[in-house]
Design brief:
This protein has 218 residues and is mainly alpha-helical. It has 8 helices and no strands.
Amino acid sequence: MNRARLAHRAGWLALAATVLFILLTLWVVRTPDHPLPADVTLHRWSVEHRPALASALTRVLTSTGTGFLPYVLLVLAGFYAGHTTRQRAFTAAALLLCLGAGQTLRYAIMMLVARPRPAAADWATHAAGWSFPSGHASTGAMTAGLLIAVLFLRGPRVSRAAVTGIAVWGAAVGLTRVYLGVHWFTDVIGSWLFATAWLSLLAFAYLSRTRDRPAADG
């Protein structure tokens, strides 16, 4: 599949994810204190099924979706993707910029929506700030998407196991926030939609600038 077709698909995916995210955000804004039935059901189940070991492992996993680790992973990915020192430095910087800009936009949306979190008595870890969209879930999803993109940029042969493992990690980080009681499930869904829209937009911009060029007349 050529770059023009990939850019076209990325553009449509960005549009679809953005529309769905806006619709979910509007619902959250209109009914901030009325979570969906799925939110309540999953939250109640999480609170009632927290053995000590599972809670401890979940806190470890959730910690990988914030702080310095996502940035370290992207720096390493940048150095893996490049073939020269200049390419490696440029790719690492571009990946960091993509994640940092996405986090900034996500934070601005969170402050505007100002959705309350679940009751603090149900929390199994520390949390701060508003609830929608989740910072951990957004960062985990964006980081996972960027890492997978690097694998495809590096060469035509991409390990399915690596892609699957990265994707599962990104999704699991988001689900830990529900299990630990600090986010509603729709916070995580919103985060995934936001990350999908952001990464698809970046992919569209990148692919549109590097489309296949027709061969010169011989």
